[in-house]
Design a protein that fits this description.
By secondary structure, the protein is an alpha/beta fold. The protein folds into three domains: about 70 residues, no CATH class; about 280 residues, Aldolase class I (TIM Barrel, Alpha-Beta Barrel); about 60 residues. The chain has 20 helices and nine strands. Strands 1, 2, 3, 4, 5, 6, 7, 8 and 9 form a nine-stranded parallel beta sheet that branches. Helix 4 packs antiparallel against helix 12, helix 4 packs antiparallel against helix 13 and helix 18 runs antiparallel to helix 19. The longest helix has 19 residues. The structure holds iron/sulfur cluster (2 copies).
Length: about 475
């Protein structure tokens, strides 16, 4: 097999030899300061880096250059995403699954956990609970099971979610994280009005992939790896990729992840909308120590910084798998979206206490959404509940063009302030309101256009009067 990023064959665009050669090249040049300086110079143009150059930065062992990598990642994050962090929550619909993934407690052989699938009434209750927290953006999750969770079930749930209007609440964007499927099913998801289609590769290493997925349809490496091409053929132009760090060697995964991004850009003219960076975590019958590729917090942060530099226009997501301390550090280096107040079990939002029996993974950040919003503001960020882009038709290459021209900033910043104001009025605690109003007042002044500042002030007054859902 020959490496070809334009190929539609998984083993050619994620080519094992090319990855091994890249990892070898990076290792050989990790102390080559001349080359590293050249790469950093290239990176400072903010046009991204290819997988080889980025892999050299990841391998770099010179302390002063590593600090430069962190500084540059931080600067790129500021330039492209400002101090805004978009918030979302996962919603688990069903833990029925026919696959045998060794790292996930929902695997078919696990008889310890109760299997549960939400009815439409239960979906509605979960959505109301999520709206009452203040969420506007969800990522729905379901195991792969053609009998229990067919595409019709997923579509029905999406319909239910969008239809619930409780008090001032509304879910305005539903992202979907379900198993690799057919072009026809992707078309149906597109027609249902989804935001991003998310599918983690888990590992790009085919041999490891097949070992970790011994049974079920997910065992088919090509079917899984080529899923984003089918999604794009089905009309979904915002796709989210990611690996489960800890399954295989991180430098292999890092190169594979960037090669996947390069492939999507080369073939479809638009790279991934988001990249997620989950790590293997403890769960029922899953012990992270069983996977010998776990990586330190330090290396995890370095990976995030190198992703930020390599693909500046791609959003980066971190979940509540990570502790508040790690989240704080990594947000600074390039993360643009985080989950908050998450329950990773089926039906978890309607329970008083966080239930553990159907959890997909152990949550390390247990704070409520209000606490997360409060913490973000105390750390200098603007929490945003913005969902404007796909609702304004800004998806795929239209979105990327706007990003690359810098124009997107004129939408993100005011939208963040207006959606934050909605949160403060409808859901926040007293202390969060006090903090938030000060943040909004301060940040209005940072909107470049005085005309837009005036519009935002006028709309903020209307939000106080009861209007909702303004957007640029
Ligand atoms: S990772 Fe997904 S496909 Fe695998 S067992 Fe868990 S829910 Fe099923
Ligand atoms: S304006 Fe678009 S890119 Fe910016 S935060 Fe909103 S949805 Fe995201």
């Amino acid at each position: 097999m020959k490496y070809d990023k334009n190929s539609l064959k998984a083993e050619e665009f994620i080519n094992n030899e090319e990855i091994l050669e890249t990892v070898r090249y990076a290792e050989e040049h990790k102390d080559d300061l001349k080359l590293i300086d050249e790469i950093l110079k290239k990176a400072k143009k903010r046009k991204g880096l290819d997988h080889r150059d980025a892999s050299v930065l990841l391998a770099c062992s010179d302390e002063s250059r590593i600090n430069e990598i962190y500084d540059l990642a931080e600067q790129i994050k500021k330039d492209f995403y400002g101090n805004r962090i978009v918030l979302f929550a996962p919603l688990y619909l069903s833990n029925y699954c026919v696959n045998g993934c060794l790292y996930c407690p929902y695997h078919i052989k696990n008889k310890n956990i109760p299997r549960k699938k939400l009815t439409q009434e239960e979906v509605a209750k979960e959505v109301i609970a999520l709206q009452d927290m203040g969420h506007k953006r969800l990522a729905i999750e379901a195991g792969e099971d053609p009998v229990n969770n067919p595409i019709e079930y997923i579509l029905e749930c999406i319909d239910t979610i969008y239809s619930i209007k409780h008090k001032n609440g509304a879910i305005r964007r539903v992202n979907v994280n379900i198993a690799a499927t057919t072009v026809d099913d992707y078309k149906k998801l597109k027609d249902a009005g989804i935001g991003t289609y998310i599918l983690f590769q888990e590992t790009y290493n085919k041999t490891e992939y097949e070992r970790l997925h011994p049974t079920g349809p997910k065992h088919d490496y090509a079917w899984h790896t080529e899923a984003m091409d089918r999604a794009m053929d089905g009309g979904i132009d915002d796709v989210g990729i990611g690996v489960l760090f800890g399954l295989d060697n991180y430098s292999y995964e890092f190169a594979g992840l960037l090669m996947h991004a390069e492939h999507l850009e080369a073939v479809h003219g638009v790279g991934p909308h988001t990249i997620s960076v989950p790590r293997v975590k403890r769960a029922d019958d899953i012990d992270p120590d069983d996977f010998d590729n776990s990586l330190s917090d330090e290396m995890f942060c370095k990976i995030a910084a190198c992703i930020r530099i390599a693909v500046p226009y791609t959003g980066m997501i971190i979940s509540t798998r990570e502790t508040p301390e790690v989240r704080e550090k990594i947000i600074r280096l390039g993360v643009s979206q985080i989950s908050g107040g998450s329950r990773t079990s089926v039906g978890g939002y309607c329970e008083e206490e966080r239930p553990h029996d159907t959890e997909q993974f152990d949550v390390s950040d247990n704070r409520t959404l209000d606490e997360v919003v409060n913490w973000l503001m105390r750390s200098g960020y603007i929490p945003s509940f913005c969902t404007a882009c796909y609702r304004e038709g800004r998806t795929g290459d239209r979105f990327m063009e706007l990003c690359k021209s810098g124009q997107i900033q004129n939408c993100c910043h005011p939208n963040a302030l207006m959606t934050l104001k909605e949160f403060l009025l409808d859901y926040a605690s007293e202390d969060t309101v006090r903090l938030g109003d000060a943040v909004i007042e301060r940040e209005i002044g940072n909107i470049p256009s005085s005309k837009v500042q005036d519009i935002v002030r006028e709309r903020l007054t209307r939000i106080v009067e009861g209007d909702r859902d303004f957007r640029f």
